[in-house]
Request: fold
Amino acid sequence: MSRADRLERLDARRVELEAEYEAVLLDALRRAAAGSWGLFGHTKDRAAGAKWEPVVTDLCDRGEEIDQLRTSLGLEPFALHEEFEASRGPVAPTAPGEPKQAKAWLERLGKDA
Reply:
């Protein structure tokens, strides 16, 4: 198999994984926008964090795999995952709640419908 064929296969896999990542993230954002807390890790409620842990772990695993493929292809890291990771964690008490943050994400991504 030639190098070009290998790179083409890697890029096709990257595109597939990025589409899957976006679908999982959009589903999670819609659930969070409907009032479910824990996706962004802004609350200290362990039950909320535990409920979202499988989704967050899945997104992080997918993001890492995508970044590995992107590195192999000489591409920049996956921006959507970087943004998601940066949006997680403790925030100031005056920050918008997770449902509002999720709605803002959906609007920004043009998927608020």
About this structure: Residues 3-108 form one domain. The chain is about 70% helix and 0% strand. Helices lie at 3-33, 46-72, 79-87, 98-108.
